[in-house]
Amino acid sequence: MTFHTGRLLVGREKEQQFLFSLICKKNPLSTCFVITGPPGCGKSVLVSSTFELLEESCGVLWALISCLESFVGTQGTCGATSSRYFLELILQSIKCRYLPEADLSISCEDTSSFIDNLCQILLAIGVRNTHDQTCVGLIFEQAERLCDRESLVLPLIVGLGASVNEKLNQLGGPHTPLLFTVLVTRLPWEKFNFGTFSFEPYVISVESYSRDQLARLLTSLLPANASESRFNRFVDLLLTVCFPVCRNAGELIHLMNINWNAYDEPVNKGLVAPDDEWGQWKLAQPYLKKSLSTLYLRHYANSNLDSLSSKNAGRQNFLELPYLTRFLLIAAFMASHNPRSLDKRLLTKNSGRLSIRKKKQEKEVYKTQAEFTGPRMFTLDRLLAIFYVLVQNEFAKVPCTSILMSQIACLTACGLLSPSSQALSVGNSFTTGLCTTNSSVNAISDLDPLANPKYRCLISLEIAKSIAQSVDFDLLSHLTENCNS
After folding, report:
1. Cα 186 to Cα 188: distance, rounded to the nearest angstrom
2. Could you give a single Gene Ontology term from the biological process aspect (predicted)?
3. Which residues make beta-bridge pairs with 204?
4. Fold classified for 5-205
5. Distance (Å, rounded) from C-alpha 158 to C-alpha 144?
6. How many CB atoms sit inside 10 A of residue 483's CB?
7. From edge to edge, which strands make up the β-sheet containing 61-66?
């Protein structure tokens, strides 16, 4: 069976015709297909558009299951619950698509009950369908996530079609459907093969777009009220600049959408003639080259590149951190650059007075030490003490919970704090930092590196000042003068 060639995907005509020919028959060539290819090569669009055509012309039914969705929804749970959620998601996807009002169970305790419930759903679909025999396809997007599950989940999905079809033949019934699975992944099939499959699936490799294919794809997306010849020249310039470093169709379409106005606006304003190719190239080239610096970043979709550059220049020393975490990082900077003996004087109002001579002597000592030692190590209890002094005016009470400790671990993982030892840092299995709240442990916390790990702050004064300014905190007044010089 064939279909109209005008409905083929631009740049993927051969792949779509080949996939259509494998499944359009009453008996698909295999019960499991694997479609592999690099990101941005059009795998998802190829599969969804092909199955829409198969459903219209051949009556093939299909359901799309996101392996990433099931993976995110089960983080932090045990393995059995994770597999149960994934199997129930498969049953729910096909039931809600074709039998939304049917009273069929989607609950499954194990793989046996999952196959039984799936067979009941398929038999109900076969009774309602008017075709002689129905083919049902289950499409698994981002199938590489199946490798993160139990070792038997992936072999179950690969052999699901053969197992279900065998049981359906035993049950019998009119219009018994046939089931097959399709795994869409960016990894080659060799990465999945653990030697536990009963048979090998049919693998279809999708290559990256060539320049000619991308040119045909982009030119087919001609904007409304745009000159076709000028838009074709723009696509050629875009591929000249971006194709050597990016073949992702989605990213190139995004770059085309945000840069087309920069290419077309000078012509509309009369700055260059519509047939002046060199003038248009000269004006558009800076915008196209700036796009390479923000490739795969889409935070500027509704802003031009000039405003983006000015905003980034003003934010280059600013870190986007949670509100409380900023105070935690400020406290770490103060603990690393201020001597411990000055904490009381800098952080409390009534700390006693010093003579001018005494202050001058201390400044000379601290300045000399800072020049040779740099940022000092500080203990966890000192960090928390400074932190609570800083936030006491902002919040009524901040409990010392595991969430607060996790922020210290995140700052360490981001390279903003450096622990004295990776094995003793907060967030490790040997230390949580919560024990420092106990009075009995406080007595030995200075002697026990597991109970009171040490850190060093690695950010510069400019970054610390920008973070302090974002929370309206005067950092310079809480630092010794050697930090300001």
Report:
1. 7
2. DNA replication initiation
3. 35
4. Rossmann fold (3.40.50)
5. 13
6. 20
7. 61-66, 135-141, 178-185, 32-36, 202-205
Give the pLDDT confidence score for residue 478 in this predicted structure: 82
- What is the C-alpha to C-alpha distance for residues 112 and 233, in angstroms, rounded to an integer? 59
Q: How many CB atoms lie within 10 A of CB 317?
A: 14
Distances (CA, A) of 346 to 33, 66, 108, 142, 468: 68, 55, 62, 54, 16
Q: Beta-strand (E) ranges in 72-212?
A: 135-141, 178-185, 202-205
Token reading at 392: 């006491």
Give buried/exposed letters for 31-55 (b at 16+ CB in 10 A, else e). bbbbbbbeebbbbeebbebbbebbe
pLDDT at position 485 is 47
Crossing angle of the two packed helices 461-470 and 323-337, in degrees rounded to 10:
140
Ordered by start, the domain boundaries in the chain are 5-205, 211-314, 323-484
- For 231-255, how does the pLDDT look when each residue is reduced to its tens digit (9 = 90+)? 998 999 889 888 988 899 999 999 9
Phi, psi of 308 (to 5 degrees): -65, -45
363 to each of 318, 358, 367, 449, how far by Cα in Å?
A: 30, 9, 6, 30
Q: Are 159 and 200 in contact (CB under 8 A)?
A: no
Q: What is the pLDDT of residue 428?
A: 55
Q: Token digits for 178? A: 């046939």
Q: For 11-63, how does the pLDDT look when each residue is reduced to its tens digit (9 = 90+)? A: 899 999 999 999 887 778 889 999 999 998 999 999 999 999 998 888 889 99
Task: Flag residues of the chain having pLDDT under 70.
Answer: 1-6, 70-82, 130-132, 173-174, 193-198, 298-319, 346, 348-373, 394-396, 422-451, 481-485
Q: How far is CA 145 from CA 80, 120, 191, 302, 426, in A?
A: 16, 27, 12, 33, 30
H runs (alpha helix) in 99-138 = 111-128
Distances (CA, A) of 462 to 33, 312, 319, 465: 55, 16, 11, 5
Residue type at 162 in one-letter notation: A
Class of residue 6 by CB neighbours under 10 A (exposed 0-12, middle 13-18, buried 19+): exposed
Q: Token pair for residue 255? A: 């770059």
Which SS3 state, helix, strand or coil, does residue 179 take?
strand
